[in-house]
Structure formats: structure tokens, C-alpha cells
């Protein structure tokens, strides 16, 4: 288990960005999974800035999003598809066929979840997966009590996020919102994982993730068992660790 603590936000974002760039340079046909949220936006933009100044070959790399909000338009600013397109995909010139996403609308999400994980496997499996950390320890939309042997599926989102998305999209109460996501089993099959967490609001869950028991109560705790996972933290999120 590797823990890296960045001294400031700039070092944090640059370190994470170079994990992505380094993987592409190491393996031009790499399959790389990305996460969205406040923690990852800046690091995605830095990848684009480096590419714009010092172009490298992205023609064979496959990017995919770990999860997606269901039953909202893809054009919605909070849809993972739109966030990733804006933050990194378009800047790197990634072709549509090399950007894999779970759908926002479907008449059969189970079918589409199976097809999504099968397409990732067909391309050789996940070489690098960048994960964010939820304040309750969730990974993607795998909330506490999600099964460790679960594969891609549609789950419920936490009430606070659902309330915000309903307000932003004008989605009525009778229309169900959820989150399509790779399951924890899929996550653990990645050859290499970099979990990124920053901010004092994450300090408590970082301690539980790294120093507590491996339990579905804290889904991210399962990463203790991954053979090649780096936990990239800032000083604030690492502040409660025993060995910090």
C-alpha cells in the first residue's frame, strides 16, 4: 500500500495529472478510467495543458468514465459525460469510439452495464483507474453496503446529491434518478489504481479507509487489498492518519 502526501494543491494536481500522462507514455494503447468531481477537475485540466504545450500520441488510448447519472440529459453540466468531455477528452482529441461511457438514458440499464464492462475487457482491461473518494467512503456510485463482488450496475445516489440534481435539471419527484457505475469487483480488477482525496472534510473517511477494517460499511477500505493502489492525499485529508 503506497500513500503519497502532497504538500499543496498544486503539487497534488500535478502529481495526479502525471500519473495519467505517464501511463499514456508507457503504454500508448492504455485503457484509463476517470472519475468526476471537485477533486479531479483541476488534474484533468492540467493533463490538457501539458498536452497542448507538449503534444503526445493519444490516438490509441481508451478513456472511460467510472460512473454516470441516470435519467438526465447528457448535455446537463453535471452529467459525467459532459464533465469529462469538457475537462479532458476534447482537449486531448480523443475520438468518440475511444471514449466509453455508461448511458444516461436506457430502456435496459442492466444490458448496457454488462455491455460496458465487456467492452472494457475486450480492449484489454483497465490499466489505470483514477478514483475519487466520497465522504462516506463510496467509490463511484457504490455506496456503503455495496457488495464487494458486485459488477456494473445502477444504484441509488445519496439524498443530498439527488436533491441537487433534481433542482438543477428540473426533474420531477416521480422520475427516478440513480447512478450507473462499475461495481467494486470491476474496480478491483484494475491493474493499477490511484485514489485521490483532498480537503479536511475527507480526513475522517481517509483514516477509516486506510486504518480501519476492510468492510462494506466503508467501500473504499477494500482498496487496502489491492496489490497496486496508490493513495494520493493532501496534508488536510491526511491529517488524522496515525503516521502522518
TrEMBL record:
A GO molecular-function annotation: identical protein binding
Any one of the GO CC terms: cytoplasm
Keywords, comma-separated and alphabetical: Hydrolase
InterPro entries assigned to the protein according to its UniProt record, in alphabetical order: Glc/Gal-6P_isomerase (IPR006148), Glucosamine6P_isomerase (IPR004547), Glucosamine6P_isomerase_CS (IPR018321), NagB/RpiA_transferase-like (IPR037171)
GO biological process: carbohydrate metabolic process; glucosamine catabolic process; N-acetylglucosamine catabolic process; N-acetylneuraminate catabolic process
Record domain Glucosamine/galactosamine-6-phosphate isomerase: where: 26-224
PROSITE patterns, alphabetized: GLC_GALNAC_ISOMERASE
Recorded superkingdom: Bacteria
PANTHER family reported for this sequence: GLUCOSAMINE-6-PHOSPHATE ISOMERASE
Name of the protein described by the UniProt record: Glucosamine-6-phosphate deaminase
Species this protein is from: Bacteroides stercorirosoris
Amino acid at each position: 500500500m503506497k500513500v503519497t502526501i502532497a504538500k499543496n494543491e498544486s503539487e497534488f494536481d500535478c502529481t495526479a495529472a502525471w500519473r495519467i500522462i505517464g501511463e499514456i507514455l508507457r503504454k500508448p494503447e492504455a485503457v484509463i478510467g476517470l472519475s468526476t468531481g471537485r477533486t479531479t477537475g483541476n488534474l484533468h485540466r492540467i493533463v490538457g495543458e501539458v498536452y497542448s504545450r507538449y503534444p503526445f500520441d493519444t490516438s490509441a488510448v481508451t478513456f472511460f468514465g467510472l460512473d454516470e447519472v441516470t435519467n438526465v440529459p447528457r448535455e446537463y453540466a453535471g452529467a459525467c459525460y459532459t464533465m469529462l468531455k469538457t475537462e479532458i477528452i476534447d482537449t486531448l482529441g480523443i475520438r468518440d469510439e475511444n471514449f466509453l461511457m455508461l448511458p444516461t438514458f436506457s430502456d435496459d440499464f442492466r444490458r448496457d452495464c454488462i455491455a460496458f464492462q465487456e467492452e472494457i475487457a475486450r480492449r484489454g482491461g483497465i490499466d489505470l483507474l483514477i478514483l475519487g473518494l466520497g465522504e462516506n467512503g463510496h467509490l463511484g456510485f457504490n455506496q456503503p453496503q455495496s457488495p464487494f463482488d458486485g459488477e456494473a450496475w445502477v444504484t441509488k445516489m445519496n439524498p443530498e446529491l439527488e436533491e441537487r440534481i433534481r433542482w438543477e435539471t428540473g426533474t420531477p419527484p416521480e422520475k427516478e434518478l440513480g447512478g450507473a457505475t462499475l461495481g467494486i469487483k470491476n474496480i478491483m480488477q484494475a491493474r493499477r489504481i490511484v485514489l485521490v482525496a483532498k480537503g479536511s472534510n475527507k480526513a475522517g473517511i481517509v483514516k477509516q479507509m486506510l486504518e480501519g477494517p476492510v468492510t462494506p460499511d466503508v467501500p473504499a477500505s477494500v482498496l487496502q487489498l489491492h496489490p497496486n493502489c496508490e493513495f494520493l492525499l493532501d496534508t488536510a485529508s491526511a491529517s488524522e492518519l496515525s503516521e502522518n
